[in-house]
Specification:
By secondary structure, the chain is mainly α. It is 54% helix and 4% strand. The protein is built from 29 helices and eight strands. A hairpin with a 3-residue loop joins strand 3 and strand 4.
């Protein structure tokens, strides 16, 4: 039987079976000494330290603490085996073979060990007899006899070793069977997920992600807060039938004309024969992809209702993303989103979709901050920068300004101011502190290229959109907003505490103060007590630094003063009117109160700092609990600020049904002029005109062109010759009078039988079609 050297034993791989590895070490029995020393030629036999009963295997295995969980021998067992083998080698014998299991020793091996022991005892007795006076034995002869005996013993053991090997195989199989039993106590093997399980895990990870929940929550909140806007989305319009009908037409026109004839998009089918008529008011051009879906009157109403809800959702989501990027907690971001997206003053602008569509401002700022690796909590971190987010931020900013200059122009100047502050801080502050290069963090070239490219795109689109507006001001001087008109819409100081009439919570409570406002729709700029109170707390208790809090407070104050227009201290001479006189395009803004959205943004971020600080204290408190989890009261306290902000933002939104156009108007020869003509009626006619988008004289906007007003005036006495001459000179083909709308007004006589007879004398053919009288010029 071949023995294994210590080197071979150390290099051998660990056993595959974890049970087989948990065995007790084999004791090596050295030969008996003769005359006080060990014979150099004697072989060393390996004997089991104990005979293990198979029935007692669990106890034996449990006592074996020197094996590891993967079935290899532990550090405590290996030295013992190595020491035993080394001791046997030092005795002059061959190293004993360590078998896989001491229990596998055969009966022949036991007999062989007993015979060897008997021989050793006999030799010991002979040596003792010699010492007591027996005849001395020649040492050389004794050594030869011992050598011959050892050779004979080795030959006898050859057959026994073969039998032992056969029995060892049988016992190893039995040991493997016992291993299968012990595997029942091991932990169950990890299941490998299948294809559908992996797909389900990915879907769940996407659905449960914070930003997925934020998007879904934003749209859910918007749908609930604007209800019942989506109850009858193809028939009704939120708030009133004035500006919403104009803006429903705007989306229809841009979606129709921009893909077909982009160079003619500014010359709309309304305000015929004026040029650049699409630039008479904010265009909502950025919504043109939605305008490409569907056509006609019903599609225009449905489209408007969807985008009305979308505007609130985007405002909520944009501020949530901004606060999270700046370092606020989820609860703080949710409070800020509710305070900004559903501020009470927004309901005074419910009929102005271009004002409600301000979510792109916050979202672009969030993307730009993320792209530059910036946050209020950690400052500028170059390692967090990502040029792709920078490009995305500039793209969203460009889209935002394409919706209109009413809020887009202040946004452009705000971005320019922010850029000057950032560049100045990066370039000058380190120099002031020590030297030009000291403490300055690197700014990657790719970020510089992304900002230059994004800024150029922003400026290019803004310039292309500004060109027709500048031409309109040149062609129509009355389109310029004079200071007197600005004063009419400037909210007084108590306007900050007046909620709009639509507010569920404060509408009736503030009715008395609201009656003092000359234009309540533009002067009720209430932010909500929740936002104001938490912002005040945020000046003292906040996660933002004192420097950031001071900047936000300054932004709140400055934007608040500008929002008051000429009602600010000193009549706005040192605030709003400076911008009015210096900044290009600022004189086109007639409603300063809409700048309140910047005040709302600063207040919301300040309030988010306070709520975030509270949330972090709750987290620290909850970490001391066992198990770790905040209680119900603490969880409720974290969402309570958002709930209160939403409660203050709840409103009662009227949902008037928009009447359809008379059937008689479907086949009118264009261009046509519909009477009665005024701001509200013309905006309704524009929505009717989405069926076919034929040229019409009618149109409503922020100002009335002189040519259109002249036509309205001369046609009050139709069919007088002057009116007919003006219409024919403008190449108007058809004049339409809607009797139900003309009753009691200056155009009522134009639909009378006498007017029809007088028109016949002038060669004009007239026709009655129900409620409509048609004159073919």
């Amino acid at each position: 039987m071949r023995t294994i050297s210590p080197e071979e034993k150390a290099a051998a791989p660990p056993p595959a079976d974890s049970i087989a590895s948990m065995e007790r070490p084999v004791d090596v029995v050295p030969p008996r000494k003769q005359n006080g020393r060990t014979p150099s030629g004697a072989s060393v036999e390996a004997a089991p330290s104990s005979t293990v009963d198979p029935a007692a295997t669990p106890a034996a295995d449990a006592a074996t603490a020197g094996t590891t969980s993967n079935g290899t021998a532990s550090a405590g067992a290996a030295p013992a085996d190595a020491a035993t083998a080394a001791e046997a080698q030092a005795a002059g014998g061959k190293p004993a073979e360590a078998t896989a299991d001491a229990d596998a020793k055969t009966t022949g091996a036991k007999a062989d060990a007993a015979a060897a022991e008997t021989t050793a005892d006999a030799d010991a007795k002979a040596a003792d007899g010699a010492e007591t006076g027996a005849k001395p034995v020649d040492e050389a002869k004794a050594g030869a006899d011992l050598k011959a005996g050892g050779k004979a013993t080795a030959e006898e053991k050859t057959a026994d070793d073969k039998a032992a090997e056969a029995d060892s195989v049988s016992l190893t199989k039995k040991k493997a069977d016992r291993g299968e039993e012990w595997r029942k106590f091991a932990p169950p093997p990890e299941r490998v997920p299948g294809r559908y399980a992996k797909l389900g895990a990915r879907v769940w990870a996407f659905v449960a992600h914070e930003w997925t929940l934020a998007v879904l929550g934003s749209f859910l909140a918007a749908a609930v807060m604007t209800w019942p806007t989506l109850k009858n989305p193809t028939k009704t319009l939120p708030m009133d039938l004035g500006d919403p009908t104009l803006q429903a037409w705007q989306m229809a026109w841009s979606g129709h004309e921009l893909p077909r004839n982009p160079l003619n998009v500014w010359n709309s089918n309304t305000f015929y024969p004026e040029s650049n008529s699409f630039a008479f008011s904010d265009t909502l051009m950025g919504y043109f992809p939605v305008g490409m879906i569907g056509s006609g009157f019903t599609a225009a109403i449905l489209r408007y209702n969807i985008m009305f809800v979308f505007a609130f959702a985007l405002a909520f989501l944009g501020v949530y993303a901004l606060v999270r990027q700046l370092g606020g907690t989820k609860s703080g971001a949710a409070l800020a989103a509710a305070a900004f997206g559903f501020a009470p003053w927004r309901w005074t602008q419910a009929g102005h979709l271009h004002v409600l569509s301000s979510g792109g401002i916050a979202l672009s700022l969030a993307m730009l901050a993320r792209g530059h690796g910036y946050s209020f909590r950690h400052g500028y971190r170059p390692e967090k920068a990502n040029w792709k987010w920078v490009v995305a931020g500039w793209a969203v900013a460009t889209w935002q300004i394409s919706l209109g200059f009413g809020i887009g122009l202040p946004f452009a100047y705000a971005l320019a101011l922010l850029g000057v502050i950032v560049v100045g801080h990066w370039a000058l502050v380190p120099r002031i502190r020590s030297s030009w290069w000291a403490d300055r963090k690197p700014f990657a070239r790719v970020l510089l290229i992304a900002n230059l490219g994004g800024g150029l795109l922003f400026a290019l689109i803004g310039g292309l959109m500004a060109r027709p507006y500048l031409q309109v001001v040149e062609d129509h001087p009355n389109a310029r907003r004079v200071v007197e008109e600005v004063s009419v819409y400037s909210p007084p100081k108590w306007g900050w505490l007046v909620a709009p009439v639509q507010s569920r919570l404060w509408g009736e409570e503030h009715a008395g103060v609201r009656a003092l406002l000359s234009v309540p729709g533009e002067m009720s700029i209430f932010l909500g007590y929740t936002a104001l109170g938490l912002a005040a707390a945020g000046l003292i208790f906040s996660v933002w630094s004192w420097r950031i809090r001071a900047m936000l407070a300054a932004g709140t104050f400055v934007s608040g003063i500008l929002a008051m227009g000429t009602a600010a201290p000193k009549g706005g001479d040192w605030s709003y009117l400076i911008l009015y006189d210096i900044l290009p395009g600022w004189d086109g803004i007639r409603t300063p109160g809409r700048l309140v959205l910047w005040t709302t943004l600063c207040v919301a971020v300040l309030a988010a700092g306070a709520v975030s600080a509270f949330a972090e204290r709750v987290k620290e408190f909850a970490e001391d609990r066992v198990p770790y989890r905040p209680g119900l009261i603490l969880r409720t306290a974290m969402v309570l600020p958002m709930v209160l902000a939403l409660a203050e933002g709840a409103a009662i939104i009227p949902q008037p049904e928009m009447p359809k156009a008379p059937l008689a108007m479907k086949d009118l020869e264009a261009p046509f002029f519909i009477l009665p003509s005024d701001q509200i009626n013309d905006e309704n006619y524009m929505l009717w005109g989405t069926d076919g988008l034929k040229p019409m004289v009618n149109g409503g906007s922020g100002f009335t062109p002189i040519g259109q007003q002249h036509m309205r005036d001369v046609c009050t006495s139709f069919p007088n010759p002057e009116c007919v001459e003006v219409l024919r000179e403008a190449k108007v083909k058809t004049l339409v009078i809607i009797r139900s709308r003309a009753i009691g007004g200056p155009y009522e006589l134009a639909a009378s039988p006498e007017a029809m007879e007088a028109a016949a004398d002038l060669g004009i053919v007239s026709e009655e079609r129900g409620d409509v009288v048609i004159y073919k010029l």
